[in-house]
Amino acid sequence: MKKVLLGLFTALIITACAPHTAGVMAGSDGQVRVDNNSFGKEVQVANIMARPEGGFLRGTGTIVSQVSTDLRLQYKFTWYDLNGMTIDDEGVSWKSVKLHGKQQLQVSAVAPNANATRFELYVRKAFSN
What we know:
It is a single chain. The protein is an alpha+beta fold. It has a single domain (22-125), classed as Immunoglobulin-like. Helix content is 17%, strand content 47%. Strands 1, 2, 5, 6, 7 and 9 form a six-stranded antiparallel sheet that branches. Strands 3-4-8 form a three-stranded antiparallel sheet. The longest helix is centred in the N-terminal third of the chain and has 16 residues, at 2-17. Mean pLDDT is 86; it is low at 2-19.
């Protein structure tokens, strides 16, 4: 019985501490996906653009707050090659930002190598521990 309770407690702790990844994604190919409807009403991603810069691709996007309160967010660029394979996704970490009510913030990144042909910008709510 103790092992069962310990196992359930451990599973509960792991689930409670798991990173929250559902949010909003906008891609340079025009694709938009909302994985969390309530968050999608608070935050929008707009003005997605990709342009060449010194042999690499630079991606930009604007994170737009739709609410009047402050939001703590994280964003991340994921880069893809011509075949749709991710490029150096393990080396890219989430960046934290704070948006004040109705604020807009332009974010930008450069592809990790010259093979990138497109990107996706992910935005999610940041949860403090």
